[in-house]
Structure formats: C-alpha cells, structure tokens
Amino acid sequence: VAKEFSSAEIMIATKNKSELIGQGGFGPVYKGVLQNGLHVAIKSLSKSSHQGAQEFLNEVSVFILCFWVET
Q1: Under 8 Å between Cβ of 43 and 29
Q2: Quick check: 45 and 58 in contact, CB under 8 A?
Q3: Rounded CA gap, 31 and 37, in Å?
Q4: From CA 17, how far away is CA 68, in angstroms rounded?
Q5: pLDDT tens across 3-54, in order?
Q6: In what order do the strands lie in the sheet with 20-23?
Q7: Residue 8 near residue 26, CB atoms below 8 Å
Q8: Each residue of 23-40: b (16+ CB within 10 Å) or e?
Q9: Which residues pair with 28 in a beta bridge?
C-alpha cells in the first residue's frame, strides 16, 4: 500500500533536508526517518531536471518494487 506524504512530513523526516546522500539525474536524494522509525531515502524531482515527472514516477516505482522483492 502506497502512502503519500505532505511537504511538512517530508521536511520533518529529513530534518529540513539536512543530510544529502546523493545526487541523480532527477535531483537530490536526502536521508530521512519516518515517524515509525523506518529509515528512508527521499528523492526529489528538481525543477532543472531534463527528465519528466512520468520518468521520475517510473523510477520510484522500480525502487518500491525492489524493496518489496528484497525484504
């Protein structure tokens, strides 16, 4: 089951995007911790990205699938 997070929840989870852990073609990736203690990577779509929103969603879907297959 997918959950959508608000901008406020993301800012709390990432401590205001304080820990950059990577940079990809879509934009920055930040370390985060959800309220339930689960450690996550928060991938952001940069406005300057040359790739579109649909490609971003496709990539995120692959990550979610890999997570569920691997665990």
Answers
A1: yes
A2: no
A3: 12
A4: 25
A5: 788 889 999 999 999 999 988 777 888 999 999 898 888 888 777 777 777 7
A6: 20-23, 28-33, 39-43
A7: no
A8: eeebbebbbbeeeeeeee
A9: 23
Tokens of 69: 């297959």
C-alpha span between 10 and 6 (Å, rounded): 6
Alpha helix ranges (H) inside the chain: 7-13, 53-70
Answer yes or no: is pLDDT of 67 > 60.
Answer: no
Give the gyration radius of the chain's Cα atoms: 12
Q: Using DSSP, state whether 32 is helix, strand or coil.
A: strand
Indicate the residue type of 14.
T
Residues present in the chain in total: 71
Left if phi > 0, otherwise alpha if psi is -120 to 50, otherwise beta: which for 17?
A: left
Tokens of 41: 């990577």
